[in-house]
Amino acid sequence: xxxxxxxxxxxxxxxxxxxxxxxxxxxxxxxxxxxxxxxxxxxxxxxxxxxxxxxxxxxxxxxxxxxxxxxxxxxxxxxxxxxxxxxxxxxxxxxxxxxxxxxxxxxxxxxxxxxxxxxxxxxxxxxxxxxxxxxxxxxxxxxxxxxxxxxxxxxxxxxxxxxxxxxxxxxxxxxxxxxxxxxxxxxxxxxxxxxx
Length: 196
Known about the structure:
Blueprint: H1 3-11, H2 17-65, E1 82-86, E2 94-95, E3 99-104, E4 108-116, E5 123-126, E6 134-135, E7 149-150, E8 158-167, H3 173-176, E9 184-195
Parallel strand pairs: 2-9
Antiparallel strand pairs: 1-3, 3-7, 4-5, 4-6, 4-8, 8-9
């Protein structure tokens, strides 16, 4: 009696262990190339989807960032009448020596001031009593106002409410303090944090 006959007799009509192993090996040899090929197609498809998703994210990011530099956080270009940017940082961390740039798609005369949140003295940038830049001209609507504000020694480190208004004519201090005045075309209040 050989080993195969002994295994068959011990299996009592069922497949013996060695026979089961041989059948499994034959089936595996037939299925493995197809499984490897299918797994390769699955991996390649997954990588293709990842590349497509990354491209879509980059495209959306590039489109949304094109106007983002001039917007306060949480705002969109559609609802921000006046855009402000700090050249040396961000509005939430604008260091001394930086410049504030102002831009608007609405044409008019710029008025602006910073109100310290700690109750200090108001800092005036533009009003009818001084130089008043014009913003929002159709020819230069993508460019900031010709005059910028330097974050100088009058700005103590801390938080400010930055009031920016566009007037149909140069705004007096009283008109700039009342954004509902009839000559106010648009107004925006943004947070400015001055750092040393």
